[in-house]
Amino acid sequence: IINPTMNCNFKCWYCYESHIKGSKLSNETIVSIKKFISNIITNQSIKHLHISWFGGEPLLYFDVIKEILEYTNSEIQKSDEITFDSSFTTNGLLITDEIIDFCIDNNAIDYQITLDGDQVRHDNVRFVSKNKGSYHKIVENILKIAQKDFIVNVRINISEDTIDGLKNIADDFVNKNGLEYKNMVFSFQKVWQEKAEIDDKIDEAIKYFRSLGLKVNYIGGRTDTLRHSCYADKINQATINYNGEVFKCTARDFNDNNKEGELDNNGNILWNEKQDARLNSKFKNKPCLSCKILPLCNGGCSQSALE
User: Fold this and answer.
1) How far apart are the C-alpha atoms of 307 and 298, rounded to whole Å?
2) pTM of the predicted model, to two decimals?
3) DSSP characters over 248-288
């Protein structure tokens, strides 16, 4: 996972990150990331390389993304053993035909794009200016990239304020073409601050989406299992911030106190003791090892264990 920036063109009320204006991958960090990628490919210690673009809003600096993806694709040609693809977590506003065409040619295969409720609610939270919302443009971009055969995970943030307008979102996607439906999944996610009991209303909305032929993914209390463990618990996973600091979990603020390593000038990650503590939080934790439901809960969230 690479964060090209911690800046964002929106300021959503529930966001846990500190938006840093002017933050951007430096040339020095880009060089280190390229070396890191080359080291992975040269060592051939993995079968598949996936780069996920996160932030901040990653598409604020598409020039950085373009440079790294072009480099990775050229390097991957040197190996017959490793496959490669890429994905974006983005608010979707800045997607252009140029970006779409580039992604088609450079193994970027899927997007996660967020809607904050229906048009009225979304535009109240994610707006370009006082008189200009972003909902219709983002929906247009979702449909456009889905029709180009990208996989699109449409994340819908749910709270008491958005729950009553969910059916309006479904209505905005039906009768557009039909061909793109196979490429879209609507993922319902409660914002982390939401405490109200709204599961019955969510179930009702899910049934409505599915009645229109739309795919829906919803797990109210997401379970981390041994078979499908959290990305932050995987050894071959790293989140590289714009300043070269390295993290495992993306669901926390990327500040200096939370870093678990740093990327050096030779393209090596120098992990600190926090990474060891995370990886040892389950399988060297005596209460977990003696618990018969460990295979079900997988020891819980390692980030929570660290905290």
Assistant:
1) 17
2) 0.91
3) S-SSS---GGG--EEE-TTS-EEE-HHHHHHHHHHHT-HHH
